[in-house]
């Protein structure tokens, strides 16, 4: 048996994760071809690398099929109810920074805050006969945030990609999306709400609280934790 | 068995479909309901919800073909999606009793409360009561613009947003720089930003005009504000609460009629054998529950089990019948109880 570490299977997130572990004396590498979704770990014995899509990692951690996983705070909180009970954060990796924000068209000069948004949502519903639509893929986080703030008369519409374009296409009036620099927003003539920061997210190393830890897994976890602590 | 007791009180048994059209519920509760109800779809009927409660379908059925006055009872499963607390059931039994009656609201309120009190008699429960109608009367009678009153009324059930609005209308909230600039400028604001999306420039301009107009209106007077805050904080036994609120009514005379109705209800409850001397009254009670109660509200809670939701709860929802009635309306009051929780409490005692 071995300690299973889930890592995003492609892109910059994978590369930066590999770099991060390498700096701490743990070498992660793919075994065999590029298409194979398993890998080798050097530096910690009885540890195994599993390559997964970042979006699957929260669920795999919650199911206990992997012991450790690297993914964003946003995905963990969106996908896992009471996430603290299912996973524990071991380290913030310092990259993959992304904020989940609320953004409206720049020309809405009358809207700066949630208070404005709520008033506009009410007027919009009267004028157009339907609720103001917010395009997002983070339904749970956005709904909880708006419920907590007491904003009413909005509707979430699902958008799994190119969310900023939904306003121009008139399939939504505003968006709730991940942004790292805000450039995409500006390019799409959108602006942030002053108090519309739903969540600050970054790539994080999580430990599953539900996975089974036998003697080998415990030993491997302790070795890894020592390496991480030594570096920090 | 619980339903039989409601039948004995003269109620007719009704059944409602498990699947409810989602549109009606979404219109009523907004997006919040999605966090609480299971949604499913088919190509013919579109979005449907597994019934999250009986009140809406019972009101709809009554508005379609009910005789007057009417008393209904039902028992069946309701479904609540649980996203936060895995210990709460997502499916449970509700037994309810609803009264549609034009005459004597006080008597109908007292009838419903007394029946539920009878059903849970012997269990270690604390009853809480309130009256959203008093708070609504207070808001409607404020000495300020109609727009401000409408905004406050819209958020009676969202205490945090209500608070924020009140602070703004009272001039307590600080005005951000951006907003000051916007308010100080005059005339149409075309700006350089691209017009984009379904909310048009005319709507933006209309709101800017409304904001400027609102900025000219004087803040809500300190005296009224303090009285309103004192009212929201009332938490006493019914007789003391009534007395306190009459004192507050010196500064908020608009609540006197609603307080008369409270007195009538208290008398009607007394006549039904309810011990009103020890009964709790909270002016803000019911503000965080479903947003259709607009008068008397009540709940029975297990004192030793603060983790449990109310064992029984209900209230008056005249405005709901107006919204679902397509021009028709009828005063209505009712409640539900949870047999599973009653059983749990009884087992502990046994």
* Sheet having the most strands of chain A: 7 strands, mixed
Low-confidence stretches of chain B at least 5 residues in length (pLDDT < 50)? none
CATH topology call of the largest domain in chain B: BirA Bifunctional Protein, domain 2
Please report the two chains with the greatest interface, counting residues with C-beta closer than 8 angstroms to the partner's C-beta. Answer: A-B, 44 and 42 residues
Tally of distinct domains of chain B: 2
- In the CATH scheme, the class of the largest domain in chain B would be Alpha Beta
The named CATH superfamily of the largest domain in chain A: Periplasmic binding protein-like II
Structural class of chain A: alpha/beta
Structure characteristics:
heterodimer; A: 232 residues; alpha/beta; D-Maltodextrin-Binding Protein, domain 2; 7-stranded mixed sheet; 5-stranded mixed sheet; 9 helices; elongated; B: 350 residues; alpha+beta; BirA Bifunctional Protein, domain 2; 9-stranded mixed sheet
Short description:
The complex is a heterodimer of chains A (232) and B (350). Chain A is α/β, with parallel strands linked by helices and 232 residues long.
Q: How would you describe this structure to a colleague?
A:
- The complex is a heterodimer of chains A (232) and B (350).
- Chain A has two domains: 3-97 and 202-231, D-Maltodextrin-Binding Protein, domain 2 (3-Layer(aba) Sandwich); 98-201, Periplasmic binding protein-like II (D-Maltodextrin-Binding Protein, domain 2), CATH 3.40.190.
- Helices cover 35% and strands 32% of the residues of chain A.
- Chain A has helices at 11-22, 57-63, 73-79, 83-86, 114-128, 139-149, 165-168, 183-187, 215-231, and strands spanning 3-8, 27-30, 38-42, 47-52, 68-72, 87-92, 98-105, 132-136, 154-158, 174-179, 190-201, 203-208.
- Chain A has 232 residues and is an alpha/beta fold.
- Chain A has a seven-stranded mixed beta sheet. A five-stranded mixed beta sheet of chain A has the order 9-8-10-7-11.
- In chain A, β3 and β4 (47-52) form a beta hairpin.
- Chain A has nine helices and twelve strands.
- Chain B folds into two domains: 2-16 and 51-139 and 226-349, Bira Bifunctional Protein, Domain 2 (BirA Bifunctional Protein, domain 2, 2-Layer Sandwich), CATH 3.30.930; 174-218, no CATH class.
- Chain B contains 14 helices and twelve strands.
- In chain B, the strands form two sheets. Chain B has a nine-stranded mixed beta sheet with strand order 1-5-6-12-11-10-7-9-8, sandwiched between helices.
- In chain B, β3 and β4 (46-50) form a beta hairpin.
- Chain B is globular.
- The mean pLDDT of chain B is 91.
- The interface between A and B is large, with 44 and 42 residues.
């Amino acid at each position: 048996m071995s300690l299973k570490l889930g890592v995003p299977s492609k892109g910059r997130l994978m590369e930066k994760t590999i770099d991060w572990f390498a700096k701490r004396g743990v070498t992660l590498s793919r075994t065999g071809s590029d298409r194979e979704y398993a890998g080798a770990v050097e530096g910690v014995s009885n540890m195994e690398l599993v390559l997964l899509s970042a979006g699957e990692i929260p669920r795999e951690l919650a199911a206990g099929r992997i012991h450790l996983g690297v993914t964003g705070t946003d995905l963990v909180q969106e996908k896992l109810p009471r996430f603290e009970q299912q996973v524990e954060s071991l380290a913030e990796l310092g990259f993959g920074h992304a904020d989940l924000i609320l953004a409206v068209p720049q020309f809405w000069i009358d809207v700066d805050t949630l208070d404005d948004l709520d008033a506009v949502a009410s007027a919009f519903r009267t004028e157009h006969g339907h609720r103001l639509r917010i395009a997002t893929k983070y339904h749970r986080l956005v709904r909880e945030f708006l419920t907590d703030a007491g904003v009413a008369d909005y509707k979430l519409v699902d958008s799994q990609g190119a969310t900023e374009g939904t306003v121009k296409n008139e399939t939504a009036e505003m968006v709730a999306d991940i942004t790292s620099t805000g450039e995409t927003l500006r390019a799409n003539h959108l602006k942030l709400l002053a108090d519309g920061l739903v969540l600050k997210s970054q790539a994080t190393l999580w430990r599953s609280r539900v996975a089974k830890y036998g003697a080998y897994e415990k030993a491997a976890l302790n070795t890894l934790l020592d390496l991480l602590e030594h570096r920090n | 068995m619980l339903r039989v007791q409601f039948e004995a009180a003269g109620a007719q048994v009704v059944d409602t479909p498990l699947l409810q059209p989602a549109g009606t519920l979404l219109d009523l509760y907004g997006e919040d309901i999605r966090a609480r109800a299971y949604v499913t779809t088919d190509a013919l009927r579109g979005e449907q919800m597994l019934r999250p409660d009986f009140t809406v379908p019972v009101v709809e059925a009554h508005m379609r073909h009910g005789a007057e006055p009417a008393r209904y009872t039902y028992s069946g499963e309701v479904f609540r999606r649980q996203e936060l607390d895995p210990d709460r059931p997502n499916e449970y039994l509700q037994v309810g009793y609803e009264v549609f009656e034009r005459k004597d609201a006080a008597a109908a309120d007292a009838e419903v409360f007394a029946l539920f009190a009878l059903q849970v008699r012997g269990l270690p429960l604390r009853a809480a009561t309130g009256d959203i109608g008093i708070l609504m009367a207070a808001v409607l009678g404020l000495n300020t613009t109609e727009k401000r009153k409408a905004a406050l009324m819209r958020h009676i059930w969202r205490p945090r947003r209500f608070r924020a609005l009140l602070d703004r209308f009272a001039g307590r909230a600080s005005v951000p720089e951006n907003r000051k600039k916007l308010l100080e400028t005059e005339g149409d604001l075309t700006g350089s930003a691209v017009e984009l999306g379904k909310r048009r420039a005319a709507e933006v301009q209309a709101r800017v005009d409304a904001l400027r107009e609102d900025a000219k209106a004087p803040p809500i007077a300190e005296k009224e504000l303090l009285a309103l805050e004192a009212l929201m904080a009332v938490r006493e036994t019914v007789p003391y609460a009534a007395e306190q609120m009459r004192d507050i009514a010196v500064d908020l005379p608009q609540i006197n009629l609603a307080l008369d109705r409270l007195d009538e209800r208290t008398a009607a409850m007394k006549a039904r054998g309810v011990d009103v001397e020890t009964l709790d009254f909270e002016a803000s009670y019911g503000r965080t529950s479903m947003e259709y109660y607009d008068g008397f509200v009540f709940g029975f809670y297990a004192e030793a089990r603060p983790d449990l939701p109310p064992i029984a709860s209900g209230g008056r929802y005249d405005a709901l019948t107006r919204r679902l009635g397509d021009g028709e309306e009828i005063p209505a009051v009712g409640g539900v109880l949870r047999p599973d929780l009653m059983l749990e409490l009884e087992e502990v005692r046994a």
